[in-house]
C-alpha cells in the first residue's frame, strides 16, 4: 500500500506528552497523526430500496457520531505500540485511519514505510476464490509482485498450516483458518509497519503463540508494530508504549504499566485501594502545596487558633487529564491520623490543561497544637475513579493555648464524695 511522504512534524499547539517528547527526540517518526477526527452519521431509519434511498436522500437526517476526536500521535521507528480501550472507544477506527483504509473527517495522517495490515477477519479476501488465489490477490494488494509472491508462497502456506485447504474456496474456511491465511500473508510482505487488530483472538492457542513469536521477531528487527488488543497483560509484556482511548478521545499515551492501570480503573476492574497511578506519571500531577493566610498571599507556616488558613494545591495537568477533576484533601496529624478533610464540589472542577492552583480556605483555625501535613487524592469527577494520590512532606504548625495534646477542650473539675 502506497503512503504519502512524511512531512516534518509541525509543532503542536498543545504541550506534548512525555511519550511524544521522548519519541520525537529519539527514533525517526514513521507515523504522524495531527488533529485527527472521524465522524460517522447514524440514521435511525434506513432506506429499504434504491428508489427510497434517492427519494429520501435530501430529506434524510441522521445523528453525528464522532468515533475519534482531535487525536495527536507520533510513532517512532521500531516502537511496539498497543491500542487499548473499552469496546467502542475508537481503537479499530484509529488503526484504519492510520492504515489509510478510512479517511479522517479532519486532521492529517502521514506514513513513511510499507504497511501490512490485518484489521478485520478476512479483509481483502474473496470468498469465491481459492486460498491460493487469495494469497496472490491479497499479497499483490499489499505491494508484492507476482515473482515475489511465487518465491514466498510455500512459506506463507506453511506458516498458515493450510496446505490441505489451499485450493479450496475460502468461503468454506473456518474463522480460524481465515485468520491464519490473512496473518501469514501480512507478515510475509516484509513490512516496515505492521498493523494488527484483535483478530488474533480467533486463532487457537498454538497459532496465537506462533503469531506472538513472529511479532517478537519483528520487534527484534526494529520494525514498527501497532496492535489493538483487549489483553492488557499482552500490552504490558510486549509493548514499549500504550495509547488508551475512551469515547474517541486519547486519554493516555505513555508507559504500558501506567496506561493499563488507568484503563483498569476506568473499567472498574481495579480496586480503588490499588487504583491510583503514581503522581509523577499521572495525567494530573499534584506538584506542590503551599500555606498562606489568603489565596496567593505570602507563604506562612506558623498559625494561631482563630487565624485564617489557605491551603493551595498546585496541579500540572496534561491534555489527557479528565475534563472534570475532583480533589479530596486530608490534613494529617501525628501518626498519620486525619484531623479534617476538605473537598472540591461534588461535580469537580474543570481546570483544563497546564498548571493551576486550587485554594482551600479555612476562615478560622480550631484550637489545635502541633504540626500538620497534607495528603491529596485526585479522582475523575465524572466516573469517580481514582487518578492519583500524593502525601506531601510540607508542614504547617498551629500553636494552641494548651500545653499538651492536640485539642483544647473546655472542662470543669470538682470533688464529689
From TrEMBL:
Pro residues composition bias: residue spans: 1-12
Note down the stretches annotated as region Disordered. Answer: 1-28
What keywords appear on the UniProt entry? ATP-binding, Nucleotide-binding, Transport
The superkingdom of the source organism is Bacteria
Q: PANTHER family in the record, alphabetically?
A: TEICHOIC ACIDS EXPORT ATP-BINDING PROTEIN TAGH
Q: Family membership, please give it.
A: Belongs to the ABC transporter superfamily.
Q: What is the recorded name of this protein?
A: ABC-2 type transport system ATP-binding protein
State the organism named in the record: Parafrankia irregularis
The lineage is: Bacteria, Bacillati, Actinomycetota, Actinomycetes, Frankiales
Amino acid at each position: 500500500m502506497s503512503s504519502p511522504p512524511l512531512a516534518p512534524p509541525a509543532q503542536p499547539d498543545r504541550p506534548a506528552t512525555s511519550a511524544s517528547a521522548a519519541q520525537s527526540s529519539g527514533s525517526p517518526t514513521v507515523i504522524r497523526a495531527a488533529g485527527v477526527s472521524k465522524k460517522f452519521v447514524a440514521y435511525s431509519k434506513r432506506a429499504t430500496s434504491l428508489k427510497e434511498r434517492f427519494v429520501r436522500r435530501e430529506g434524510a437526517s441522521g445523528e453525528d457520531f464522532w468515533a475519534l476526536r482531535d487525536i495527536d500521535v507520533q510513532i517512532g521507528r521500531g516502537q511496539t505500540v498497543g491500542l487499548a480501550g473499552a469496546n467502542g472507544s475508537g481503537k479499530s477506527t484509529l488503526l484504519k485511519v492510520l492504515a489509510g483504509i478510512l479517511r479522517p473527517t479532519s486532521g492529517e495522517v502521514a506514513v513513511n514505510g510499507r504497511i501490512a495490515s490485518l484489521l478485520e477477519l478476512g479483509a481483502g479476501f474473496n470468498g469465491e476464490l481459492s486460498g491460493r488465489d487469495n494469497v496472490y490477490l491479497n499479497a499483490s494488494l499489499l505491494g508484492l509482485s507476482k515473482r515475489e509472491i511465487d518465491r514466498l508462497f510455500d512459506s506463507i502456506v506453511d506458516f498458515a498450516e493450510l496446505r490441505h485447504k489451499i485450493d479450496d474456496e475460502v468461503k468454506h474456511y473456518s474463522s480460524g483458518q481465515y485468520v491464519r491465511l490473512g496473518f501469514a500473508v501480512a507478515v510475509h510482505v516484509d513490512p516496515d509497519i505492521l498493523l494488527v487488530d484483535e483478530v488474533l483472538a480467533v486463532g487457537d492457542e498454538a497459532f496465537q503463540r506462533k503469531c506472538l513469536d513472529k511479532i517478537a521477531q519483528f520487534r527484534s528487527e526494529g520494525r514498527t508494530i501497532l496492535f489493538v488488543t483487549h489483553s492488557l497483560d499482552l500490552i504490558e509484556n510486549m509493548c514499549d508504549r500504550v495509547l488508551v482511548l475512551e469515547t474517541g478521545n486519547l486519554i493516555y499515551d505513555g508507559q504500558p504499566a501506567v496506561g493499563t492501570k488507568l484503563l483498569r480503573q476506568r473499567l472498574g476492574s481495579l480496586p480503588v485501594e490499588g487504583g491510583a497511578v503514581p503522581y509523577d506519571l499521572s495525567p494530573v500531577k499534584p506538584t506542590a502545596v503551599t500555606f498562606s493566610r489568603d489565596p496567593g498571599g505570602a507563604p506562612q507556616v506558623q498559625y494561631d487558633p482563630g487565624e485564617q488558613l489557605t491551603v493551595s494545591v498546585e496541579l500540572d495537568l496534561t491534555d489527557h487529564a479528565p475534563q472534570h477533576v475532583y480533589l479530596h484533601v486530608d490534613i494529617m496529624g501525628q501518626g498519620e491520623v486525619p484531623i479534617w478533610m476538605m473537598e472540591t464540589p461534588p461535580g469537580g472542577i474543570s481546570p483544563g490543561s497546564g498548571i493551576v492552583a486550587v485554594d482551600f480556605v479555612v476562615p478560622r483555625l480550631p484550637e489545635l497544637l502541633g504540626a500538620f501535613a497534607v495528603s491529596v487524592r485526585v479522582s475523575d469527577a465524572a466516573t469517580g475513579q481514582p487518578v492519583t494520590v500524593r502525601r506531601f512532606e510540607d508542614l504547617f504548625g498551629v500553636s494552641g493555648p494548651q500545653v499538651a495534646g492536640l485539642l483544647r477542650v473546655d472542662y470543669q473539675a470538682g470533688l464529689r464524695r
